[in-house]
Design goal:
52% of the residues lie in helices and 13% in strands. By secondary structure, it is α+β, with helices and mostly antiparallel strands. It has three domains: 6-51, Ubiquitin-associated (UBA) domain (Helicase, Ruva Protein, domain 3); 59-112 and 156-194, Elongation factor Ts, dimerisation domain (Tetrahydropterin Synthase, Chain A); 117-154, no CATH class.
Length: 197
């Protein structure tokens, strides 16, 4: 089996618009063959969701979650294209589950990788570089990239595994909802509140 690189995943994602984990899984299943991975994503309907990604998502819902001890609360806004979908039980349930997930994930900094503050990314890159300094030079770059990817998995909402659905990322669940509803689904913003923080 060939090694799947971040560049391969990005290339497939750029081509299909499917979620990052969906692209990674499709590449793994197709043994790194991008054409076969595109076919897999199209067959699953995940590439089609990308066609709708440019559609304006002007409707939606704001949902909240307050933890039972009253010390943690979350507000989340999830948008879609029509008010019909915004009132759909599956759409509202997704937003509520998302609020619960964010409450359980205090390390979440941003929704997408592009939203991660540059200074935070640079700090983690410096730390990973220092930690890999004593490793052989030919593997140092991969170690640093691996540490940075692991950190991004922890702080980027779309890359996180859902607390209730551990085999699926938030992006996987968002893409499935977009595919099921036939609309662009966008996690617009969130706010997490914790007493004393």
């Amino acid at each position: 089996m060939s090694a799947i690189t971040a560049a391969d995943v990005k290339a497939l994602r750029d081509r299909t618009g499917a979620g990052m984990m969906a692209c990674k899984n499709a590449l793994a299943e197709s043994d790194g063959d991008i054409e076969k991975a595109v076919e897999l994503l199209r067959a699953r309907g995940e590439a089609q969701a990308a066609k709708r990604a440019g559609n304006e998502a002007g409707e939606g819902t704001v949902q909240s979650y307050i933890h039972s001890n009253g010390r943690i609360g979350v507000l989340v806004e999830v948008n879609c294209e029509t008010d019909f979908v915004a009132r759909n039980d599956a759409f509202v349930a997704f937003a509520r589950d998302l609020a619960l997930h964010i409450a359980a994930s205090p390390s979440t900094l941003a929704i997408t990788e592009d939203d991660v503050p540059a200074e935070d990314r640079e700090r983690e890159l410096r730390i990973a570089t220092e930690q890999a300094a004593d490793k052989p030079e030919n593997v140092r770059e991969r170690i640093v990239q691996g540490k940075l990817d692991k950190w991004l998995d922890e702080v980027v909402l779309l890359r996180q595994e859902h607390v209730k659905h551990e085999d699926q990322t938030i992006e996987d669940l968002r893409a499935k909802l977009a595919s099921d509803t036939g609309e662009n689904v966008v996690i617009r913003r969130f706010a997490r509140f914790e007493i004393g923080q």
